[in-house]
Specification:
It is a single chain. By secondary structure, the chain is of the alpha/beta class. The strands form four sheets. Strands 10-11-14-15-16-17-18-19 form an eight-stranded parallel β-barrel, surrounded by seven helices. It has a seven-stranded mixed beta sheet with strand order 1-9-6-7-5-3-4. A two-stranded antiparallel sheet has the order 2-8. Helix 4 links the parallel strand 3 and strand 4. 54% of the residues are buried. The chain binds ligand TNX. The site of ligand TNX has 10 residues, from loops.
């Protein structure tokens, strides 16, 4: 057994190189067999490369590795502010735990292989936006990518190759070559049902970044609160924001705070998708501006958890002036491609009105140079060319509703997958979970992981799937600890489903790799749920 283990790096190099197969696949299957689903022993036997989550496209471990020391510097490609910033973020992540100075330099000219080098290679187009290659030997590490985003993703792999809490700070030797399966790998946070501060969201951004999530969808408005200042409609935030589920004080972000959050995420190559949910889920807006109501009377603010009772007044022109004001300001705050216009659970809007509303509002998004994202109910209207729908159905969703999504996909609409009974992070893990809901059933870690986004929805082939997103609705979530308990570890599984090749998705291997993340999550202070289906060390 030991001999086999020792030979494995060599065998992996030969086989993976010669046959261009995914080394990770071959090796995960191997480790699952050798460690078996036996658990803790299997986890301890994993090499540093086998612990990387999401599983990289290919790994070829070998050689003694590189040990960081007082002389280690991080050098980035000359002339690239993006590369230099990634180098800084990597050094910032490592300094506190290692106690090393790790100076950063914006030039890699004339250096040998000592220390860490982050290189942008104009000829490495095959890496795409986010792919990278990481080579580690006794002299140091070289990270190569075509784009700064690829350097950032590769830097997360570097972080995972370093021991989580204790030196010697040796990076395992070998090569990782990696590209993502899907371009959209998201997490959503509902800051409307309960308000969260920008600091809390930044913390979540940091946690998500380690697992190569690249999209943060923010559900900014709902019946219970409006969380973003809109200068042309000040009462939305000042009045509509001052409530939340349970009657707490709520809150909102100024545009400056929001810009700061978007920039923070952007430095981590996480695109923020703002959601203004219309025409339903709008009680906070209806309470703030009476003219948005068909009867001209503003309802009281709402602090319960019911859905589907509110609607903007579709026939009124005031409605479109309002939506246009909001979308104009939100678009101006958004460097990203998408504006999410919600569109879910508009149970108080007639079908005809819903269609008429979406026919008016979708072009407003295009007028601001953005792409429409909406919950899959948009397929009950006419999705605009280029629109993306987010599927949040579940096993009991009717065949007709699923077929409408498949029809839209056939007509060219791309789909983001967020099946509620798989990756709704607000679903309880099991009957023992205190926070969360269970309307889509319990979602243990295994269930959240064991599905293939490329073959999940009948009639929605992989080419139509933009990616996956794990939403966290916060009717029951009031603070960062509860957020982390529900999100971790399941959001890590969503990250892997979005990044890793289909052939690498294997629960028996994943549960061991996930267990191996435990000490890393502990070191980072992430308060994750120690799920019983994972053999935590
Ligand atoms: C459904 S998912 C909703 C939300 C709730 C969530 C609770 C979706 C588009 N709508 O309004 O918060 O369930 O799990």
């Amino acid at each position: 057994m030991r001999l086999l283990r020792a030979l494995r790096p060599l065998a992996a190099l030969l086989v993976c190189g010669a046959l261009a197969v995914s080394c990770t696949e071959a090796r995960s299957a191997d480790s699952a067999k050798s460690g078996g689903p036996a658990g803790v022993a299997g986890v301890a036997a994993l090499s540093a490369h086998e612990r990387i989550v999401p599983a990289p496209a290919s790994t070829a471990p070998g050689g003694p590795g590189y040990t960081l020391g007082p002389g280690t510097a991080v050098r980035a490609t000359a002339g690239s502010a993006g590369a230099k910033r990634v180098a800084e973020l990597l050094a910032e992540a490592w300094r506190p735990v290692t106690g090393l100075p790790l100076p950063v330099s914006g030039s890699d000219a004339g250096t040998g292989r000592d220390g860490l080098r982050l290189r942008l290679d104009g000829n490495a187009g095959a890496f795409g936006e986010e792919g990278y290659r990481l080579e580690v030997d006794e002299d140091g590490a070289v990270l190569t990518a075509h784009r700064p985003a690829g350097l950032f993703r590769g830097a997360q792999t570097l972080r995972q190759l370093l021991p989580p809490a204790r030196g010697p700070w040796t990076l395992a030797g070998g090569t990782v070559t990696d590209t993502p399966r899907f371009g959209y790998r998201g997490a959503m946070l509902d800051v409307a049902r309960h308000f969260f501060t920008v600091e809390q969201v930044k913390k979540y951004v940091d946690q998500l970044a380690l697992y190569k999530i690249n999209t943060l969808h923010l559900h900014l408005t709902d019946d219970q609160g409006w969380r973003i200042a809109v200068a042309s409609r000040p009462r939305l935030a000042s009045y509509g924001g001052a409530s939340e589920v349970g009657g707490g004080p709520g809150g909102h972000w100024t545009q400056e705070q929001y810009r700061d959050l978007v920039a923070y995420a952007g430095e981590r190559y996480i695109e923020v998708v703002p959601e203004i949910d219309v025409p339903g889920h709008t009680n906070a807006a209806l309470a703030s501006y009476a003219e948005l109501n068909c009867n001209g009377i503003a309802p009281a603010r709402y602090t319960g958890v019911k859905v589907g009772f509110s609607s903007l007044c579709v026939p009124k022109e005031e409605t479109y002036a309002f939506v246009d004001d909001v979308l104009r300001e939100i678009a101006a705050l958004t460097p990203g491609r998408y504006l999410h216009i919600g569109g879910d659970e508009a149970h108080s809007t007639s079908r005809t009105d819903y269609r008429a509303f979406m026919d008016r509002v979708q072009p407003m998004v295009a007028d601001r140079g953005k792409t429409v994202l909406a919950w899959h109910q948009l397929t009950g209207a006419q999705p605009a060319p280029g629109a993306v729908v987010q599927y949040w159905g579940h096993d009991r969703t009717t065949a007709a509703e699923k077929a409408a999504v498949a029809d839209a996909a056939r007509a060219g609409t791309k789909v983001v997958l967020s099946p509620a009974d798989r990756i709704y992070l607000d679903m309880k893990y099991d009957r023992g979970t205190v926070i969360g809901t269970a309307w889509a059933g319990y979602v243990p870690v295994r269930r959240a992981y064991e599905w293939d986004p490329g073959a999940y929805l009948p009639g929605v082939p992989e080419e139509s799937v933009l990616g996956v997103e794990a939403p966290l609705w916060t009717e029951t979530v009031t603070n960062g600890r509860e957020l982390e308990q529900l999100a971790f570890p399941r959001v890590i599984g969503a990250a892997e489903l979005g990044w890793s090749k289909a052939a690498a998705l294997d629960w028996d291997a994943y549960r061991l790799r996930l267990a191996a993340q435990g000490p890393r999550l502990d070191a980072l202070g992430v308060r994750y749920f120690r799920a019983p289906d994972v053999p935590w060390e």
